[in-house]
Specification:
The structure holds two protein chains of two kinds.
Chain A: E1 4-11, E2 21-28, E3 33-37, H1 44-52, E4 59-64, E5 67-68, E6 79-82, H2 94-104, H3 109-122, H4 138-150, E7 156-160, H5 168-185, E8 188-193, H6 196-202, E9 205-210, E10 213-218, H7 220-225, H8 230-235, E11 242-249, E12 252-255, E13 258-261, H9 264-269, E14 274-279, E15 284-287, E16 293-302, E17 306-312, E18 324-330, E19 340-345, E20 350-354
Parallel strand pairs in A: 3-8, 3-9, 6-7, 7-8
Antiparallel strand pairs in A: 1-2, 1-4, 4-5, 9-10, 11-12, 11-14, 12-13, 14-20, 15-19, 16-17, 16-19, 17-18
Chain B: H1 34-60, H2 65-70, H3 78-81, H4 87-95, H5 98-129, H6 135-147, H7 154-163, H8 170-194, H9 198-207, H10 211-222, H11 224-240, H12 243-248, H13 257-270, H14 274-307
Classes of the chains: A alpha+beta, B mainly alpha.
The complex binds adenosine-5'-diphosphate and magnesium ion.
Magnesium ion binds near residues 44 and 45 of chain A.
């Protein structure tokens, strides 16, 4: 077991002056499940592949425990990796796939078979040990890929979107299985996904990347409750947070004609009078139109337990869906398309960001 | 609800249906088009001509010279009437030295084809997957070798081999066959190696396999289809190879089948043994034809597999 430390790790790709991963500083504790999340192309896979030794490290270092592995080839790093497409060896049986590393490591046959059998049992693969990967379902293949990793008992697991090829229902099941398996084995794990729900449900901590830069690394609760900047605020949470630009006059900003109070620290931290007021869909109180920000229900999304109202409003928002307010109401509420409401943020549900720098204002 | 409404069964029952004899094609795909018609005519003409030639060859190999010239497309009769239907084959086999040539050819073709693939597979792997600097240029350089018709290099090759004392020598012949077949085989196999996903090599690297082991334990088994295709195509090509054998081999003991047939052609036509001559041709051609028919599907999937994703 070991910690993993990224120390100013930087990776350039040929022909691109902007690094794909830029000065990443990150410490992963022993036995921790760390999720790397971010939009497509933000450098998650590159980070993981640097750790696995599949990409060179142009600047900075990576350490596993006390060992500096920056220049070690993959086989000397004591890591195991689960690939997005599983990368199973098609001509080998499940047992041979799982046992390939042990065979190369020249483990005696009896011991090797015992280890493979153990791993197979843990993953419910025992009946399929003699099959070739082509004759397995997607979920079974995914488990073989997991088996190949856990049979090694490595210091670190690397997983690159291992669930993205499964259908929605299986994905939800498997994500719990992987998380509980990891906790049982206690192996330090770096898990890459673009799906923020997966990140929030699986990780001990979640690191959010954008354009190769680490935005924030915190527990799911910390990330959700105190997003460090506008990007994290908009990326984490589904449906996304409502982000409303406003101008500060004195010690309050006006949103849809309603004042939002700022503390003295917040006012002094501002670099310009523009702020962004963030309110999650569940942070609204629904009032009569005269009492809050005016909004008209456009779409009602009934989930049974909850109801999401997508409303239009004269108040501008930032982001792709300008003017669209998302509001959570209790399930089976009587709202209908065309209903008019007034929205006001609950106390304590307001997130404030500096509009110029995107940074969160002190609470 | 009133009780008169019939309740539906809880489980949906599939109604009895009769499937169509042939599923309907996509609309528009079956329409008449002049290009399609032209293509069909061409394909069928081509097939017909070839089948006719094959029929002529096989039937003539059972005929007397008189039959061959007077009734070229009739079924053979006279040797059957005389109770000696395989007379032409016996004549060719006994007079052309095919027995010895057969052994020489089988050994030469087998050894050459295997060595060609053994040399080309690692070369193709290195060129297509190891990411060696300049590998693209090198691949193109090898491909140029395919574009040079070997007839143009026969004379310099002969002089060079003569200086090495390797003319009229089966080992020399083997060297030439291997050398001239490598460009095509390397090119064919690079296509196969390129179509394999990168992650397999990466997974092997993480599993701790050396490049050598990755090649033999992972990549080579996965390109088996391509290797077999390369083997078969080379075997057929070398089996039928005549020009180089005529130039480089001039002693009966070294003759390949194609070379022996060429000598036999002179002798048999001098004696007007046209039936025997054609039987000789059949002896040389038919084994490869049979091999090809047996393995055609394999070869075609092999050829297309390497090409696409
Ligand atoms: N082999 C490569 N060559 C050049 N650019 C690459 C290569 N791999 C990734 N990139 C670029 O690096 C950036 C990060 O890629 P990646 O780490 O794969 O993103 P993610 O996994 O987060 O979607 C992207 O902009 C991508 O285009
Ligand atoms: Mg990726």
């Amino acid at each position: 077991m070991a910690t993993v430390t990224f120390d100013g790790t930087t990776r350039y790709y040929a022909g691109n002056p902007v690094p794909a991963v830029d000065g990443l500083d990150l410490e992963v504790a022993d036995g921790e499940f760390l999720v790397l999340v971010g939009p497509s192309g933000c450098g998650k896979s590159t980070t993981l592949r640097m750790l696995a030794g599949l990409e060179g490290i142009d600047d900075g270092a990576i350490r596993i425990g006390d060992r500096d592995v920056t220049n070690l080839p993959p086989k000397d790093r004591d890591i195991a990796m689960v690939f997005q497409n599983y990368a199973l060896y098609p001509h080998m049986t499940v047992a041979d796939n799982i046992g390939f590393h042990l065979k190369i490591a020249k483990m005696p046959k009896a011991e090797r078979l015992e280890r493979v059998r153990e791993a197979a049992e843990l993953l419910d693969l025992t009946p399929y040990l003699d099959r070739k990967p082509a004759k397995l379902s997607g979920g079974q293949r995914q488990r073989v890929a997991m088996g190949r990793a856990i049979v090694r008992r490595p210091q670190v697991f690397c997983m690159d979107e291992p669930l993205s090829n499964l259908d929605a229902k299986l994905r939800v099941q498997t994500r719990t299985q992987i998380a509980s398996l990891q906790r049982r084995l206690g192996v330090t794990t770096i898990y890459v996904t673009h799906d923020q729900v997966e990140a929030m449900t699986m990780g001990d901590r979640v690191a959010v990347l954008k354009d190769g830069l680490l935005q924030q690394c915190d527990t799911p609760i910390g990330l959700f409750g105190k997003p460090a900047n506008l990007f994290v605020a908009g990326f984490i949470g589904s449906p996304a947070m409502n982000l409303i630009p406003a101008t500060v006059e004195g010690d309050s900003a006006r949103v849809g004609g309603r004042p939002v109070q700022l503390t003295r620290d917040q006012v002094s931290a501002l670099t310009s009078p523009s702020v962004v007021v963030g309110v999650r869909p569940e942070g609204w109180r629904i009032l009569s139109p005269a009492e809050g920000i005016e909004a008209t229900v456009e779409v009602v999304e009934e989930l049974g337990s909850d109801q999401y109202l997508y409303c239009s409003s004269p108040v501008e928002q930032i982001g792709a869906d300008a003017n669209q307010f998302t509001v959570r109401a209790p399930g089976m509420s009587p709202w209908q398309r065309g209903d008019k409401l007034g929205l006001a943020p609950e106390t304590g549900a307001v997130h404030l960001f500096d509009a110029e720098t995107g940074a969160r204002l002190p609470d | 609800m009133s009780s008169t409404v019939e309740s539906k069964p809880a489980v949906a029952v599939r109604p009895v249906r009769t499937p169509p004899r042939k599923p309907k094609p996509a609309p528009g795909s079956r329409g008449f088009s002049p290009l399609r018609l032209l293509g069909m005519i061409f394909v069928w003409l081509f097939t017909a001509v070839n089948v006719l030639v094959l029929y002529w060859l096989v039937s003539a190999s059972f005929k007397t010279p008189i039959e061959i010239f007077s009734k070229p497309f009739a079924l053979p009769l006279q040797w059957f009437e005389r109770g000696d239907p395989f007379r032409n084959f016996a004549y060719a086999w006994n007079n052309a030295g095919f027995g010895h040539a057969f052994v020489v050819t089988v050994v030469l073709v087998a050894v050459s084809s295997v060595v060609i693939v053994l040399v080309s597979a690692p070369a193709a792997y290195a060129l297509s997957r190891l990411g060696v600097r300049g590998s693209n240029g090198l691949t193109n350089f090898v491909a140029i070798g395919m574009g040079i018709p070997f007839q143009t290099v026969v004379i310099p090759l002969f002089i060079g081999m003569g200086k090495l004392g390797l003319t009229n020598n089966l080992f020399g012949m083997f060297l030439i066959y291997v050398a001239l077949s490598i460009p095509f085989t390397v090119f064919l196999l690079t296509g196969f190696f390129k179509s394999l996903p990168d992650e397999l090599e990466e997974a092997a690297a993480i599993d701790g396999a050396s490049p050598f082991r990755t090649f033999f334990a992972i990549m080579l088994p996965l390109t088996r289809g391509g290797l077999i295709t390369a083997l078969i195509l080379n075997a057929i090509g070398l089996w039928n190879e005549t020009l180089l054998a005529i130039v480089f081999l001039n002693e009966n003991a070294n003759f390949t089948l194609a070379r022996a047939l060429f000598s036999f052609y002179g002798a048999a036509s001098y004696q007007s043994e046209y039936g025997g001559l054609i039987a000789g041709v059949a002896i040389v051609v038919l084994p490869m034809l049979v091999l090809y028919v047996l393995l055609a599907r394999r070869i075609i999937t092999g050829l297309t597999l390497g090409a696409g994703k």
